[in-house]
Amino acid sequence: MQGVRCSSHGIHTATLTPDASDLHGPGDGVRIRTQSASICQTDINLANFGELPFTMGHEFAGVLDDGTPVGIEPIAPCGTCQYCAKNDYHFCERGHAMVIGIGRNGGMAEEVLVPERSIVPLPTGLDVRDACLIEPLAVNLHALDLARLRGDQRVCVVGANMTGFGLLGGAGAVYRGCEVAVEEEAAHALEAAERMGMKSSPEGLYDLVIEGDGSEESIARAAERAAPGGTVLMVAGYYTEFKNFKVLPFMAKELTVIWGTYYGHHSTGRDADSAAMMLAQQPAIADSIITHRFPLEAAPEAFELVRSDTPSLKVVLEP
After folding, report:
1. Phi-psi region of 101 (alpha: psi -120 to 50; beta: other; left: phi over 0)
2. How confident is residue 28, by pLDDT bands cut at 50, 70 and 90?
3. I need a labelling partner for 98 at 20 to 30 A (CA). Which of 55, 87, 107, 147 fits?
4. At a CB cut-off of 8 Å and minimum separation 6, what does 223 contact?
5. Does the pLDDT at position 260 exceed 50?
6. In this structure, are residues 260 and 233 in contact, taking their beta carbons and an 8 Å threshold?
């Protein structure tokens, strides 16, 4: 079995042994034969750490042994800690160790075992080759809920992110009826945004600003774009311990700052199920965000593309 690993020499596709630690872990139970696994900014940052003791991939989808296509909510909470008891399982005391592809073996492999609770049924209209987008979209939908977004609000996305992550937040806001604009320099990202119903020329100030890039410059621009009393939603990957940016605009405008990191359960179900339904109803999202597909054995080239200046958004591996 082949899977993507990171060693001291970088990203490579390795031959794994399926009868040992490459597949098994606490809470495993259902085999997924991976059909699509997309590269996240988190994967790029994990690779910078050097050798990792697990198979990568937390954004993935596949088929069950009977051929049923499914998406994945890639977490394996304990189910018994104080947070799981309140159904806040995304705060499980296992921490990152419960995240498939980040703390344990993930879906950038020909197959992987996951807890049965991780399975996300795919609605009619969502191709399993696109269902790897469920996880990143679920993060953004969860974040919009934390920001208490209303359909009558104006939204601006500042920075598309190297994998188009910020655009998924904008797509979620469009889906909820908002007017959405994107502030971004990359022409290919602006083109994708327009295909998903966003404007490429921000005007004025906005009720909600989604900071999707993660740089100090982008955080500062998000504050500038926010209306007094507005909200800045931080959804990008912030992988350094410190960020230096001006706090005066945040203070002077009395801005609310919200961090969107996880996904979980809301009043009508899981964020992952909501993301699956939205992707099925809005095929333009996958058509716009997914720009490249590679076979699993070409993982080094795929990761290099994401790191490079070559225009790309979501890059998908297909075992």
Report:
1. left
2. low
3. 147
4. 209, 232, 245, 246, 249, 250, 253, 255
5. yes
6. yes
Amino acid at 24: H
Q: Residue 114 forms beta bridges with which residues? A: 30
Instruction: Give the contacts of 9 (CB within 8 A, at least 6 positions apart).
Output: none
Helix (H, G, I), strand (E, B) or coil at 263: coil
* Distance from chain centroid for Cα 124: 22
Gap between the Cα atoms of 215 and 239, Å rounded: 10
Quote the tokens at residue 70.
Answer: 């499914």
Which tokens belong to 88? 């806040």
**Superfamily (CATH H level) for 2-135+264-318:** Medium-chain alcohol dehydrogenases, catalytic domain (3.90.180.10)
Q: Give pLDDT, residue 245.
A: 85
Question: What band does 18 get if pLDDT is binned at 50, 70 and 90?
Answer: low
Which tens digit of pLDDT belongs to each residue from 199-257? Answer: 999 999 999 999 999 999 999 999 999 999 999 999 998 888 788 888 999 999 999 99
139-259 belongs to CATH 3.30.1490.10: no
Residue 15 CB burial class (10 angstroms; 0-12, 13-18, ≥19): exposed
Matching CATH topology for 2-135+264-318 and 139-259?
no
**One-letter amino acid of 125:** G
Contact indicator for 170, 157 with CB cutoff of 8 Å: yes
Spans of all domains in the chain: 2-135+264-318, 139-259
Mean of the pLDDT values across residues 55-75? Answer: 97
Helix or strand holding residue 315 (H, E): strand 314-318
| Res. 280: pLDDT tops 50 | yes
% of the chain residues with pLDDT over 70 = 97
Q: Are 132 and 36 in contact (CB under 8 A)?
A: yes
CA-to-CA distance for 243 and 42, rounded, in angstroms? 17
Tokens 């994107």 sit on residue: 182
Could you list the beta-strand ranges (E) of the chain.
2-7, 10-15, 30-38, 60-63, 69-72, 111-114, 119-121, 154-158, 179-183, 206-211, 226-234, 256-259, 265-266, 269-270, 290-295, 314-318
